[in-house]
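Changelog excerpt: complex records now keep ligands as SMILES alongside chain sequences, and the structure block spans every component. Example after the change:
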Amino acid sequence: MKNKDTADSFCLYYTFNYAKGVLLLFIYRIALRDIERKVREMAKKIASEKLDEEDGSIVIDADEEQATIDDLPGVGPATAEKLREAGFEELLAIAVMSPNELAEQAELGEAVSSKIIQGAKKMANIGGFVSGNKLLERRKEVQKLTSGSAALDELLGGGFETQAIVEVYGEFGSGKTQIGHQLAVNTILPSEQGGFDGEIFYIDTEDTFRPERIAQMAEAVGLDPSVVLDRIHVARAYNSAHQMLLVDEIKKLSKNIDVKLIIVDSLTSHFRAEYVGRGMLATRQQKLNRHLKELKQLSDVHNALVLVTNQVMSKPDAMWGDPTKAIGGHIVGHASTFRLYLRKSKGGRRIARLVDSPNLPEGEAVFTVTAEGLRD
Ligand SMILES: Nc1ncnc2c1ncn2[C@@H]1O[C@H](COP(=O)(O)OP(=O)(O)O)[C@@H](O)[C@H]1O
Ligand SMILES: [Mg+2]
Protein backbone atom coordinates (compact mmCIF):
# COMPACT_ATOMS: atom_id res chain seq x y z
CA MET A 1 0.00 0.00 0.00
CA LYS A 2 2.71 2.35 1.08
CA ASN A 3 4.74 1.50 -2.00
CA LYS A 4 1.81 2.28 -4.26
CA ASP A 5 1.34 5.68 -2.60
CA THR A 6 4.99 6.49 -3.10
CA ALA A 7 4.74 5.42 -6.72
CA ASP A 8 1.65 7.56 -7.21
CA SER A 9 3.23 10.65 -5.70
CA PHE A 10 6.35 10.10 -7.81
CA CYS A 11 4.19 9.86 -10.87
CA LEU A 12 2.32 13.03 -9.90
CA TYR A 13 5.59 14.81 -9.21
CA TYR A 14 7.00 13.97 -12.63
CA THR A 15 3.77 14.77 -14.48
CA PHE A 16 3.66 18.13 -12.73
CA ASN A 17 7.28 18.91 -13.61
CA TYR A 18 6.77 17.80 -17.20
CA ALA A 19 3.74 20.08 -17.55
CA LYS A 20 5.72 22.95 -16.02
CA GLY A 21 8.48 22.35 -18.56
CA VAL A 22 6.06 22.37 -21.49
CA LEU A 23 4.43 25.56 -20.22
CA LEU A 24 7.80 27.28 -19.78
CA LEU A 25 8.83 26.24 -23.27
CA PHE A 26 5.58 27.63 -24.63
CA ILE A 27 6.04 30.99 -22.87
CA TYR A 28 9.63 31.10 -24.02
CA ARG A 29 8.64 30.53 -27.66
CA ILE A 30 5.99 33.25 -27.55
CA ALA A 31 8.49 35.69 -26.08
CA LEU A 32 11.02 34.73 -28.75
CA ARG A 33 8.50 35.29 -31.50
CA ASP A 34 7.70 38.73 -30.11
CA ILE A 35 11.38 39.67 -30.03
CA GLU A 36 11.81 38.38 -33.59
CA ARG A 37 8.89 40.50 -34.76
CA LYS A 38 10.30 43.60 -33.07
CA VAL A 39 13.71 43.05 -34.64
CA ARG A 40 12.11 42.58 -38.06
CA GLU A 41 10.15 45.82 -37.66
CA MET A 42 13.25 47.68 -36.61
CA ALA A 43 15.20 46.36 -39.58
CA LYS A 44 12.39 47.37 -41.90
CA LYS A 45 12.31 50.86 -40.42
CA ILE A 46 16.05 51.28 -40.76
CA ALA A 47 15.93 50.00 -44.35
CA SER A 48 13.17 52.41 -45.33
CA GLU A 49 14.93 55.33 -43.69
CA LYS A 50 18.07 54.40 -45.57
CA LEU A 51 16.14 54.23 -48.84
CA ASP A 52 14.78 57.73 -48.30
CA GLU A 53 18.24 59.02 -47.58
CA GLU A 54 19.70 57.30 -50.60
CA ASP A 55 17.43 58.70 -53.25
CA GLY A 56 17.73 62.12 -51.65
CA SER A 57 14.00 62.72 -51.79
CA ILE A 58 12.15 64.41 -48.97
CA VAL A 59 9.43 62.23 -47.58
CA ILE A 60 6.68 64.56 -46.49
CA ASP A 61 3.99 62.16 -45.45
CA ALA A 62 4.95 60.06 -42.48
CA ASP A 63 3.37 56.64 -42.64
CA GLU A 64 1.47 57.13 -39.39
CA GLU A 65 -0.33 60.20 -40.63
CA GLN A 66 -1.53 59.00 -43.98
CA ALA A 67 -4.75 57.06 -43.73
CA THR A 68 -5.02 53.79 -45.61
CA ILE A 69 -7.97 51.58 -46.39
CA ASP A 70 -7.34 49.70 -43.15
CA ASP A 71 -8.27 52.86 -41.23
CA LEU A 72 -11.73 53.07 -42.78
CA PRO A 73 -14.67 52.61 -40.44
CA GLY A 74 -16.11 49.12 -40.68
CA VAL A 75 -13.11 47.73 -42.52
CA GLY A 76 -11.49 44.75 -40.86
CA PRO A 77 -8.65 42.68 -42.29
CA ALA A 78 -11.01 40.54 -44.40
CA THR A 79 -12.76 43.50 -46.01
CA ALA A 80 -9.45 45.29 -46.56
CA GLU A 81 -8.22 42.19 -48.34
CA LYS A 82 -11.32 42.13 -50.56
CA LEU A 83 -10.85 45.81 -51.40
CA ARG A 84 -7.19 45.27 -52.27
CA GLU A 85 -8.01 42.25 -54.38
CA ALA A 86 -10.48 44.32 -56.36
CA GLY A 87 -7.75 46.89 -56.96
CA PHE A 88 -8.79 49.50 -54.38
CA GLU A 89 -5.49 50.41 -52.81
CA GLU A 90 -6.18 54.09 -52.35
CA LEU A 91 -8.86 55.96 -50.47
CA LEU A 92 -9.52 58.28 -53.37
CA ALA A 93 -10.33 55.34 -55.64
CA ILE A 94 -13.01 54.29 -53.15
CA ALA A 95 -14.28 57.81 -52.49
CA VAL A 96 -15.31 58.26 -56.13
CA MET A 97 -17.26 54.98 -56.40
CA SER A 98 -21.00 54.54 -56.08
CA PRO A 99 -22.17 52.04 -53.44
CA ASN A 100 -23.49 49.50 -55.94
CA GLU A 101 -20.37 49.72 -58.09
CA LEU A 102 -18.14 49.13 -55.09
CA ALA A 103 -20.41 46.36 -53.81
CA GLU A 104 -20.18 44.58 -57.13
CA GLN A 105 -16.47 45.03 -57.75
CA ALA A 106 -15.26 44.22 -54.24
CA GLU A 107 -17.99 41.64 -53.55
CA LEU A 108 -19.33 43.46 -50.51
CA GLY A 109 -22.81 44.29 -49.28
CA GLU A 110 -24.27 47.60 -50.44
CA ALA A 111 -24.76 48.96 -46.93
CA VAL A 112 -21.14 48.20 -46.04
CA SER A 113 -19.98 49.72 -49.32
CA SER A 114 -21.94 52.87 -48.66
CA LYS A 115 -20.40 53.22 -45.19
CA ILE A 116 -16.91 52.63 -46.58
CA ILE A 117 -17.40 55.24 -49.29
CA GLN A 118 -18.60 57.81 -46.74
CA GLY A 119 -15.49 57.15 -44.66
CA ALA A 120 -13.21 57.34 -47.68
CA LYS A 121 -14.71 60.70 -48.70
CA LYS A 122 -13.83 62.13 -45.31
CA MET A 123 -10.34 60.68 -45.13
CA ALA A 124 -9.12 60.82 -48.74
CA ASN A 125 -7.02 63.60 -50.05
CA ILE A 126 -9.48 64.76 -52.72
CA GLY A 127 -7.21 67.39 -54.24
CA GLY A 128 -8.72 70.61 -55.42
CA PHE A 129 -9.14 73.21 -58.10
CA VAL A 130 -6.14 74.65 -59.82
CA SER A 131 -5.93 77.91 -61.70
CA GLY A 132 -5.99 78.10 -65.47
CA ASN A 133 -2.43 79.39 -65.30
CA LYS A 134 -1.29 76.34 -63.46
CA LEU A 135 -2.90 74.16 -66.12
CA LEU A 136 -1.18 76.18 -68.81
CA GLU A 137 2.09 75.53 -67.00
CA ARG A 138 1.35 71.82 -67.10
CA ARG A 139 0.40 71.96 -70.77
CA LYS A 140 3.79 73.57 -71.43
CA GLU A 141 5.39 70.35 -70.26
CA VAL A 142 3.65 68.42 -73.05
CA GLN A 143 6.18 66.79 -75.37
CA LYS A 144 5.59 65.51 -78.88
CA LEU A 145 6.84 62.29 -80.36
CA THR A 146 7.56 61.85 -84.05
CA SER A 147 5.97 58.91 -85.86
CA GLY A 148 8.51 58.90 -88.67
CA SER A 149 5.90 60.25 -91.08
CA ALA A 150 5.81 64.05 -91.42
CA ALA A 151 2.23 63.92 -92.68
CA LEU A 152 1.02 61.93 -89.68
CA ASP A 153 2.93 64.20 -87.27
CA GLU A 154 1.34 67.24 -88.86
CA LEU A 155 -2.13 65.75 -88.59
CA LEU A 156 -1.51 65.48 -84.84
CA GLY A 157 -0.24 69.04 -84.52
CA GLY A 158 3.44 68.10 -84.43
CA GLY A 159 3.45 64.51 -83.18
CA PHE A 160 1.98 62.17 -80.56
CA GLU A 161 1.46 64.13 -77.32
CA THR A 162 2.29 63.24 -73.74
CA GLN A 163 -0.38 63.58 -71.01
CA ALA A 164 -2.77 61.96 -73.46
CA ILE A 165 -4.29 58.67 -74.49
CA VAL A 166 -4.21 58.09 -78.23
CA GLU A 167 -6.53 55.42 -79.53
CA VAL A 168 -5.61 53.92 -82.89
CA TYR A 169 -8.41 51.88 -84.38
CA GLY A 170 -8.85 50.11 -87.67
CA GLU A 171 -9.37 46.72 -89.19
CA PHE A 172 -6.93 43.81 -89.08
CA GLY A 173 -3.67 44.62 -90.89
CA SER A 174 -4.32 48.36 -91.02
CA GLY A 175 -1.01 49.12 -89.27
CA LYS A 176 -1.94 49.60 -85.59
CA THR A 177 0.82 47.33 -84.29
CA GLN A 178 3.32 48.89 -86.71
CA ILE A 179 2.57 52.31 -85.22
CA GLY A 180 3.11 50.84 -81.74
CA HIS A 181 6.49 49.40 -82.70
CA GLN A 182 7.61 52.61 -84.41
CA LEU A 183 6.60 54.83 -81.49
CA ALA A 184 8.41 52.50 -79.09
CA VAL A 185 11.62 52.88 -81.11
CA ASN A 186 11.23 56.64 -81.54
CA THR A 187 10.65 57.14 -77.80
CA ILE A 188 14.29 56.24 -77.31
CA LEU A 189 15.53 58.91 -79.71
CA PRO A 190 16.85 62.14 -78.16
CA SER A 191 14.47 65.10 -78.20
CA GLU A 192 16.43 66.83 -81.02
CA GLN A 193 15.34 63.94 -83.22
CA GLY A 194 11.73 64.03 -82.11
CA GLY A 195 12.07 61.43 -79.34
CA PHE A 196 11.63 61.39 -75.56
CA ASP A 197 14.88 59.69 -74.51
CA GLY A 198 12.72 57.55 -72.23
CA GLU A 199 11.54 54.02 -71.67
CA ILE A 200 8.56 52.00 -72.80
CA PHE A 201 6.06 49.61 -71.25
CA TYR A 202 4.38 47.43 -73.83
CA ILE A 203 1.33 45.34 -72.88
CA ASP A 204 0.87 42.77 -75.61
CA THR A 205 -2.49 40.98 -75.63
CA GLU A 206 -2.37 39.34 -79.05
CA ASP A 207 1.20 38.08 -79.03
CA THR A 208 2.14 40.37 -81.90
CA PHE A 209 5.13 42.15 -80.36
CA ARG A 210 8.18 41.32 -82.49
CA PRO A 211 11.67 42.22 -81.21
CA GLU A 212 13.06 41.56 -84.71
CA ARG A 213 10.79 44.26 -86.09
CA ILE A 214 11.96 46.66 -83.36
CA ALA A 215 15.60 45.89 -84.28
CA GLN A 216 14.87 46.56 -87.95
CA MET A 217 13.24 49.92 -87.17
CA ALA A 218 15.97 50.86 -84.66
CA GLU A 219 18.73 50.32 -87.18
CA ALA A 220 16.85 52.45 -89.71
CA VAL A 221 16.97 55.46 -87.34
CA GLY A 222 20.60 54.84 -86.37
CA LEU A 223 20.00 53.32 -82.93
CA ASP A 224 21.68 50.23 -81.50
CA PRO A 225 18.94 47.55 -81.54
CA SER A 226 20.18 46.00 -78.33
CA VAL A 227 20.04 49.34 -76.47
CA VAL A 228 16.53 49.90 -77.79
CA LEU A 229 15.28 46.43 -76.83
CA ASP A 230 16.76 46.89 -73.39
CA ARG A 231 14.54 49.91 -72.77
CA ILE A 232 11.30 48.35 -73.99
CA HIS A 233 9.63 46.37 -71.20
CA VAL A 234 7.15 43.90 -72.63
CA ALA A 235 4.50 41.86 -70.85
CA ARG A 236 2.07 39.44 -72.39
CA ALA A 237 -1.45 39.84 -70.91
CA TYR A 238 -3.32 36.54 -70.71
CA ASN A 239 -6.77 37.92 -69.96
CA SER A 240 -8.45 41.21 -69.16
CA ALA A 241 -7.89 40.91 -65.40
CA HIS A 242 -4.22 40.26 -65.97
CA GLN A 243 -4.10 43.19 -68.37
CA MET A 244 -5.45 45.47 -65.63
CA LEU A 245 -3.02 44.08 -63.07
CA LEU A 246 -0.14 44.88 -65.40
CA VAL A 247 -1.08 48.55 -65.17
CA ASP A 248 -0.65 48.32 -61.38
CA GLU A 249 2.72 46.76 -62.03
CA ILE A 250 3.66 49.69 -64.29
CA LYS A 251 2.65 52.02 -61.45
CA LYS A 252 5.13 50.28 -59.17
CA LEU A 253 7.94 49.91 -61.70
CA SER A 254 7.72 53.48 -62.95
CA LYS A 255 9.19 54.68 -59.67
CA ASN A 256 12.54 53.47 -60.98
CA ILE A 257 11.96 53.57 -64.73
CA ASP A 258 11.59 56.79 -66.69
CA VAL A 259 8.45 55.76 -68.54
CA LYS A 260 7.50 57.97 -71.49
CA LEU A 261 5.35 55.62 -73.54
CA ILE A 262 2.82 52.98 -72.51
CA ILE A 263 1.32 50.79 -75.22
CA VAL A 264 -1.68 48.50 -74.84
CA ASP A 265 -1.99 46.47 -78.05
CA SER A 266 -4.80 45.60 -78.14
CA LEU A 267 -6.83 47.40 -75.50
CA THR A 268 -10.08 45.60 -76.23
CA SER A 269 -9.40 42.09 -77.55
CA HIS A 270 -9.58 40.30 -74.18
CA PHE A 271 -12.55 42.34 -72.98
CA ARG A 272 -14.37 41.57 -76.19
CA ALA A 273 -13.69 37.85 -75.94
CA GLU A 274 -14.59 37.57 -72.26
CA TYR A 275 -17.65 39.78 -71.95
CA VAL A 276 -19.93 38.47 -74.64
CA GLY A 277 -23.52 39.49 -75.23
CA ARG A 278 -25.80 42.28 -74.16
CA GLY A 279 -25.97 41.25 -70.51
CA MET A 280 -22.22 41.66 -70.11
CA LEU A 281 -21.98 44.98 -71.88
CA ALA A 282 -22.31 47.21 -68.81
CA THR A 283 -19.71 45.29 -66.83
CA ARG A 284 -17.31 45.30 -69.77
CA GLN A 285 -17.64 49.04 -70.21
CA GLN A 286 -17.14 49.67 -66.50
CA LYS A 287 -13.95 47.63 -66.43
CA LEU A 288 -12.64 49.26 -69.59
CA ASN A 289 -13.46 52.63 -68.13
CA ARG A 290 -11.48 51.92 -64.98
CA HIS A 291 -8.59 50.52 -67.00
CA LEU A 292 -8.44 53.66 -69.11
CA LYS A 293 -8.66 55.95 -66.10
CA GLU A 294 -5.65 54.26 -64.57
CA LEU A 295 -3.75 54.60 -67.82
CA LYS A 296 -4.68 58.28 -68.04
CA GLN A 297 -3.45 58.82 -64.51
CA LEU A 298 -0.08 57.30 -65.43
CA SER A 299 0.18 59.53 -68.48
CA ASP A 300 -0.45 62.61 -66.33
CA VAL A 301 1.86 61.65 -63.48
CA HIS A 302 4.80 60.78 -65.72
CA ASN A 303 4.14 63.24 -68.55
CA ALA A 304 3.94 60.17 -70.77
CA LEU A 305 2.05 59.10 -73.86
CA VAL A 306 -0.41 56.21 -73.77
CA LEU A 307 -1.15 54.43 -77.03
CA VAL A 308 -4.04 51.97 -77.14
CA THR A 309 -5.20 50.00 -80.17
CA ASN A 310 -8.69 48.86 -80.94
CA GLN A 311 -9.96 46.71 -83.77
CA VAL A 312 -13.01 47.31 -85.89
CA MET A 313 -14.85 44.71 -87.90
CA SER A 314 -14.08 44.59 -91.59
CA LYS A 315 -17.43 42.97 -92.41
CA PRO A 316 -20.80 44.15 -91.18
CA ASP A 317 -21.72 42.14 -88.15
CA ALA A 318 -25.20 42.09 -86.72
CA MET A 319 -23.87 41.55 -83.22
CA TRP A 320 -21.65 44.59 -83.17
CA GLY A 321 -23.64 46.98 -85.39
CA ASP A 322 -21.81 49.59 -87.42
CA PRO A 323 -18.71 47.94 -88.96
CA THR A 324 -16.61 51.09 -88.75
CA LYS A 325 -17.36 51.65 -85.07
CA ALA A 326 -14.54 50.86 -82.69
CA ILE A 327 -15.07 48.19 -80.06
CA GLY A 328 -15.63 49.56 -76.60
CA GLY A 329 -17.86 52.22 -78.07
CA HIS A 330 -18.15 55.63 -76.57
CA ILE A 331 -16.30 54.87 -73.34
CA VAL A 332 -13.00 54.36 -75.12
CA GLY A 333 -13.87 57.34 -77.29
CA HIS A 334 -14.38 59.68 -74.36
CA ALA A 335 -11.40 58.46 -72.38
CA SER A 336 -8.94 58.93 -75.21
CA THR A 337 -7.66 62.38 -76.02
CA PHE A 338 -6.99 61.63 -79.67
CA ARG A 339 -8.56 59.01 -81.92
CA LEU A 340 -6.98 57.87 -85.15
CA TYR A 341 -8.94 55.76 -87.57
CA LEU A 342 -6.68 53.76 -89.91
CA ARG A 343 -7.57 52.21 -93.20
CA LYS A 344 -5.65 50.49 -95.96
CA SER A 345 -5.30 52.16 -99.31
CA LYS A 346 -3.74 51.31 -102.68
CA GLY A 347 -0.04 50.44 -102.99
CA GLY A 348 0.44 49.57 -99.32
CA ARG A 349 -0.46 53.10 -98.27
CA ARG A 350 -2.40 53.77 -95.08
CA ILE A 351 -4.83 56.58 -94.45
CA ALA A 352 -5.08 57.92 -90.90
CA ARG A 353 -8.08 60.02 -90.01
CA LEU A 354 -8.05 62.18 -86.87
CA VAL A 355 -11.51 61.64 -85.48
CA ASP A 356 -11.54 63.30 -82.09
CA SER A 357 -9.29 65.93 -80.65
CA PRO A 358 -9.80 68.65 -78.05
CA ASN A 359 -7.84 71.26 -79.99
CA LEU A 360 -7.18 70.08 -83.55
CA PRO A 361 -9.33 70.01 -86.69
CA GLU A 362 -10.43 66.71 -88.20
CA GLY A 363 -8.32 65.65 -91.13
CA GLU A 364 -6.45 62.89 -92.87
CA ALA A 365 -2.85 61.91 -93.52
CA VAL A 366 -1.37 59.32 -95.84
CA PHE A 367 1.68 57.29 -94.81
CA THR A 368 3.34 54.00 -95.72
CA VAL A 369 4.64 51.05 -93.76
CA THR A 370 8.05 50.08 -95.14
CA ALA A 371 10.77 47.68 -94.00
CA GLU A 372 12.38 50.66 -92.19
CA GLY A 373 9.11 51.51 -90.50
CA LEU A 374 6.57 54.32 -90.83
CA ARG A 375 7.41 56.79 -93.57
CA ASP A 376 5.62 59.38 -95.74
N1 LIG B 1 8.90 44.27 -92.23
C1 LIG B 1 7.88 44.86 -92.86
N2 LIG B 1 8.08 45.52 -93.99
C2 LIG B 1 7.08 46.13 -94.61
N3 LIG B 1 5.81 46.11 -94.22
C3 LIG B 1 5.53 45.47 -93.09
C4 LIG B 1 6.54 44.82 -92.33
N4 LIG B 1 5.96 44.27 -91.27
C5 LIG B 1 4.66 44.56 -91.34
N5 LIG B 1 4.38 45.28 -92.42
C6 LIG B 1 3.06 45.79 -92.85
O1 LIG B 1 2.22 45.93 -91.75
C7 LIG B 1 1.03 45.17 -91.91
C8 LIG B 1 0.56 44.63 -90.61
O2 LIG B 1 0.17 45.71 -89.84
P1 LIG B 1 -0.19 45.57 -88.32
O3 LIG B 1 0.28 46.79 -87.66
O4 LIG B 1 0.29 44.28 -87.81
O5 LIG B 1 -1.78 45.55 -88.37
P2 LIG B 1 -2.83 45.62 -87.20
O6 LIG B 1 -3.62 46.85 -87.49
O7 LIG B 1 -3.66 44.39 -87.34
O8 LIG B 1 -2.08 45.68 -85.93
C9 LIG B 1 1.39 44.10 -92.88
O9 LIG B 1 0.26 43.68 -93.61
C10 LIG B 1 2.39 44.81 -93.78
O10 LIG B 1 1.72 45.54 -94.75
MG1 LIG C 1 -2.06 44.34 -84.33
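Residues 170, 172-178, 348, 369-371 surround adenosine-5'-diphosphate (ligand 1) (CB under 6 Å). The two ends are 113 Å apart (CA to CA).
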